[in-house]
Amino acid sequence: QVQLVESGGGLVQAGGSLRLSCAASGRTFSSYAMGWFRQAPGKERELVARVRRDRTTVYADSVKGRFTVSRDNYEKAVYLEIGSLKPEDTAVYYCNAFSAVTRREYWGQGTQVTVSS
């Protein structure tokens, strides 16, 4: 069982930056691929970035070069540095943990990011 708690969202002007954090509980954090998803009003939830167990990363095309995902297995945390924010980045951002072994995944409650133009 993994519990995820996001923090760091807020209201920011276009061009600004934020750092989202996700704190995880559980003994097997390092065995999970960790990801950040987002869901804007009226839209489906989409993958923003993922960092695998071997620390390789995947990004959505829309955020490449602006977002950076990282993990700290000792602290059981995953981070998303988001920069050069655009109004279209406005969404609720969710932390996700996925186990390729058990096929289980877990979600946090989400943190709101609002970008004003």
Largest sheet geometry: 7 strands, mixed
The SS-based structural class is: mainly beta
Mean pLDDT: 96
| Element-by-element helix/strand order | EEEEEEEEEEE
Summed up, the helix count is 0
Q: How many strands?
A: 11
Q: Based on Cα principal axes, name the global outline.
A: globular
How would you characterize this protein structure?
The chain is mainly β. The protein is 0% helix and 51% strand. It is built from no helices and eleven strands. The chain has strands at 4-7, 10-13, 18-24, 33-39, 46-51, 57-59, 67-72, 77-82, 91-98, 105-107, 111-116. Strands 2, 4, 5, 6, 9, 10 and 11 form a seven-stranded mixed sheet that branches. Strands 1-3-8-7 form a four-stranded antiparallel sheet, with no helix packed on it.
List keywords for this structure.
117 residues, 11 strands, 4-stranded antiparallel sheet, 7-stranded mixed sheet
